[in-house]
Amino acid sequence: MTTPVALTIAGSDSSGGAGIQADLKTFAALGVYGASAITALTAQNTRGVTGIHAVPADFVTAQIDAVFSDLEVGAVKIGMVAQAASIDAIAAALTRWKPGHIVLDPVMVATSGDRLLASEAVDALRAKLMPLASVITPNLPEAAALLDEPVAAGEAEIERQGRRLLALGCRAVLIKGGHGEGAESIDYLVDSKKTIALAAPRVATRNTHGTGCSLSSAVAAGLAKGEDLERAVQGAKAWISAAIAAADRFSVGHGHGPIHHFHKFY
Questions:
Q1: pTM, whole model, 2 decimals?
Q2: Would residue 128 show up in a list of annotated catalytic residues for this protein?
Q3: Which end of the chain is less crowded, N or C, counting CB atoms within 10 A of the terminal residue's CB?
Q4: Could you read off the pLDDT of 4-36 as tens digits, one per residue?
Q5: SS3 (DSSP) at 37
Q6: d(CA 181, CA 95)
Q7: Mean pLDDT, to the nearest integer, of 197-201?
Q8: Distance CA 71, CA 37 (A)
Q9: Which of 11, 16, 178, 212 is catalytic?
């Protein structure tokens, strides 16, 4: 029996709630072996980011090559890329290795409001990583930023932005509705043929640190296990909703605390 393997290419969160740490917890919680290539170290906690140290692009390449040359990677999740040089390195490596599934989470700003992607790198992300992606997973502000538009209000505008993002080269878009309003948090999966709305009750909690990282990793985990995209997204939505609902079982930090990745186990 082959062990499903997923690779996360992202930044490290020293407080353990987001980034590489959240991705590996998500993979483990969903029965997938996790590997990692770190793009940046952050000095970070639940209150904010106090420092970012980018990993040299050639060492990002070395990590990716080391993983692919030995492990059977079923899916790749890309999170924080930090700088344009890293984007170039990631795009070149993934073009060489040709993984079956790539989930791109266009991380630009942390839950705390701290910027995690250099403004000059946004164009590179659009041009070089989006065309490689099986699916991208922006939240409402990120979708708007990628299109240089105001944040969408309402289902029709969200779907229109999803289709504009598709035109940039990715095969599907999952626009996350956690920044929206109302009793339900609704995510929209948009591909060339249809739009699917995925709703869950909105949970009143301040413990949402790492939510976006973890949702995209959950999608990658499903794809690594052989699920099709729609099933992987539905499973990820159900899992992340339960992880957010269980977040207040933790008392971690004094800001935006982490979600509960292992809510099924304790």
A1: 0.95
A2: no
A3: N
A4: 999 999 999 999 999 999 999 999 999 999 999
A5: strand
A6: 39
A7: 91
A8: 13
A9: 212
